Structures
1.
Amino acid sequence: MTANIQTLKAAERPPTAMSSKLEGESLEVSMGPQHPSTHGVFRMNVSLDGEIVTKLKPVFGYLHRNHEKIGENATYLSSMPYTDRLDYFCSMTNNWAYALSVEKLAGIEVPERAEYLRVILAELTRLQNHASLLGFLLSDMGAWGTPLMYAFREREKILDLFESLSGSRMMCDYMRFGGCRVDAGPEWLERARRIAEVFPKFLDEFEKLIVENEIVIARTQEVGKLSAELAISAGITGPMLRACGVNYDIRKVDGYGFYPRLKFRVPLGEHGDTYDRLMMRALEMRESVGILKQAFEQIQPGPIVNPKVKIRAFKPPVGEAYGRIEGPKGELGFYLISDGGPNPYRYRVRPPSFINLTVLEDLCLGHTVADVMVILGSIDIVMGEVDR
Amino acid sequence: MIGVGILKGMGVTARNFVGSYFEKDRLTTVQYPEERSPLPENYRNFPILIYDTDDPNAGLRCVACKICEKECPPQCIYIIKSEDKKPDYMGKPQFYPAVFDIDISVCMSCQICVEVCPFEAIKMDKDFELSKRERFDALLTRKGELSKSNEYYHRIHPIEAAEVDAKLAEAAAAAAAKKKAAAEAAAKAVGSTSAPGAAPAAQPQPTEST
């Protein structure tokens, strides 16, 4: 019996593999959770054949904080500061997505000035998120420090704007159901307009660092290719999906907020590799600057919050709602079911980083360990949002 | 030609390096303990309780209504209501907090307590240098440490504090006008009907006027 199995195995094995290639054990490596390039506490169990990845199993949950269950036990307003802690780079867009779904649930209208402020803040968030992502990505590729510091210099200006408006740099907690919390004065708008105006200068400089750099090209082109079919069937959204050439931007598809009033183009990639994903961010930042310019021109004085919305004892009617926005990382949605009480019956977050992470194994197979870090960096994850 | 892209990148870093000696906008670092960047008006850190006049016990605006305790997302506020009442800034007898603790190791500086407070009693501090030598008791701020005068509030948030003062003065004026109107109405009612048993509280006033 045993002899029979042995002969079968020998027969299955192609003769060339026996003769031409040394066969060793595949090596199991646990990368993370404490690893400088995993963007937080992310772990991957990687099987290696030499230096080539043959299997990759993501392990997450190290930063799990029970966000959804807390949301079900807290009042609607109390969940707002918790959404800042999801994707701590983009607290403004998180606030907007949550406010949008509650506004849908309760049928609340938002004043015009508040909508413009939201667009301005969301685009500023996109600028600082993409800038710091490019810095981190170059850092992962071995350009330690310098590009990251250039990106953080620009990010700092935008965070200062957030601080002087909302009181906090990263945990803004700025938007409210039916509007925004504090009004932006004319000096603030002027400061923000100036920062948006000089931002393309930083982009020109940064693109000189990356676009033609041979090392960046060698490390990113044809690495981590994602096909449009796989991207669509895996539910990938955001710049990662558009890098595969799929024209899907929720700002255009849903037309939430005042985006239909603003003119902007959706940049599309062609190859779906890491280089396209990288360039997608640079192009999106240019479009964001254009949106900001229009928004600063169109914004008019007026009320910033709907006075009908009660701040204490807020109870939306029975029903359910799903509000989604195009966050810097992809489609960020909040699904709420209300039973008429002061807290939601069900509170669900659709995090873009988490769902974009699901294709990591498909992207990494056949590449080297060093490429895994670059591919992971180009997905743009924040563990606060992946683990929730 | 290979290497041109890298040289271009090097040019950018060289320009930044040299520029950091001459251009002001490339010098972004603030040497913190010696230099300080000014805090914006809206900056918030941890909650404080505001009191009027000079006495932190008598002038405390908080009436222990516990709304902030209920709305606080991480539940870091702990209040015990008093048994007796004391007059508030408008002279109305009100409860006051016998115990008011905020665990600032739990507080997440979200400002929701400030927004929901109907009495303008709880506001956000700007003090961020809060290192303590003990781990537990020092981070549990009690009523005494939380109480800050209205002048202090004016110092840290000048614009907001002026608005709050105007609002409170308006409310006080409205309440006083209402009281006066009620008293006059009562006086009128007593004077016109001259019913001997009606409105004993308003009794002295008609005698004064007649």
2.
Amino acid sequence: MRGRESMFTRGFRALTGAVLITWLVLPLIPLGIWSFARGWYFPDLLPRNWSLRAWEYTLSDTAGVIECLWLTIGISLAATFLSIIVGVPAGRALGLYRFRGKELVELMILAPTIVPGIAVVLGIHSVFIALGLNNTVGGVIIVHLIPTLPYMVLVMSGIFANYDPSYEAQARSLGASALETFWYITVPAIMPGVIVGGLFAFLVSWSQYILTLLIGGGKVVTLPLLLFNFATSNRNDITGAIGMIYILPGILILLMTARHLSGRSSAVGGFGTI
Amino acid sequence: MTQVSLKELTKVYQGATEPSLDRLSLEIASGELAALLGPSGCGKTTTMKMIAGLLEPTSGDVQFGGRSILHEKPEKRGVVMVFQNYLLFPYMNVAENIGFGLKMRKVDKREISRRVGDMLSLVKLPDLGSRRPSELSGGQQQRVALARALIVEPDVLLLDEPLSNLDAHLRFEMRDLIRGLQQDLKITTIFVTHDQEEAVVLADKVALILDGRLKQYAGAEEFYNRPVDEATARFFGGQNFVQGHSDGSRFESALGALDLPEGAATGPGKLTFRPENVRIGHAEASRNRLTASLSDKLFMGTQTRLKLRVGGELIDVVANPNEVAGISNGDELKISLPPSSLWVLAN
């Protein structure tokens, strides 16, 4: 098929590729330049003086950026892990079974992606204060589940809609225990979905600002919060350096998954037909 | 060697008013090959799943060798079920699929590979171990599914519609393979099917289930010659039912008075006989001679189906095409009904 693509198709593909790259990569270039600049003033096209000062500061112990990076990674990994633990069974229920009120449950799970975070978090804030979860890392991890779960559940319900539980019955019948069945039959079938959903969850958690700010109460400082602090205090060079670190996971994940998210191999699991 | 007993097995699904399976009692002798036959939705797959432990009965009991197994988990029952669509694990190759049950039993890897090799040659697929299930034909997948079940040497083997997904020419081959393996290994085997032909060619005994109830449990021939009622006879292709009265030796009806075999029911009832057991022509020794007129004729290749009018009744007859080649509608025809082919269904 590939050889038969028309000029138009190929041209359109090249055009969308170019637009996408312009849109996504171009805004990042000034940020990268800033991180190596020592002053960069209008009307200069490039900074007159270059320096590694911003990077030196960013990577030093005193700045606390590295510490903050590890905290952010920890929070995002924990939120991702919890999303998987909750999202897989929820996706299974939504994908495999029909039950009364299913549409309502689906809507409730999707709601956080529609309703603005700030509206949700103000209510949750008072609940978390009552529970003593405000200003804690645990509280931040839990509140991150609000935006990460919809993605996880949505991806997993898609996987389970294309899943035949008879395979599990067959494995049980052949002598596998419930746990062995899950490990040998269910996990390989849903793994691609878990990975894709997990990457989504990680990135969504990674980029949370308002939820972290309100529930963390300034005590739990993740990378986006730190980034914002520097951005508003006119330190464009340090903002640039932290910004570069901040976008790293996104780029890595994009590189790892680009192959799976495009074209004919975009199916992410299930048993399909054999 | 395991005898399987179902005792008053009943399943009422949640929210259902009628039971899907109503007090089914069956004894399947050790090493026997039994069929559960019935139209879709009659409760036969439900029965199978309850034996396999994949479904909990509402009441009743399943016993292997006289011992109830209802409290056992599916993987501990010694039962393996082969599903209709084979369900080969797509993430494993053929050898891994077949060896799965042994792996779950923590059998040594070298032992697994040796026994998988034996199994592959037993089901006549010696060189396909490294193939993916998606690369196999339907018949090959069926063999792999069977090998995967047999390798764990189950006490009881359950087969769900084992022949129905196969082409006509593969069915006989598969039938011989299943039958042969079952005889060699002496595994008590139960299969479900909606196809009476499949049940007849494969099974020692057939249990006919209609609307969740056991109608008859007998050898295949009895369903043709000695059905318990009209629904059973019709399920096996019975067409001829003539209302009348039996005195035990003769049956009075619109067809006249006909001699009955010994042991026929008495009183008012229906006379039934297979279309293929009606003899064309009057031989010297034939009893129950009748004269009929042809009302319709359908040539079907290896046989010709006739509709004959006798004393106001229409009866169905299957004849050898050559015997009835010359006759046409309205012609008179001599037929006879051998007493041994008649059967009375008491009202």
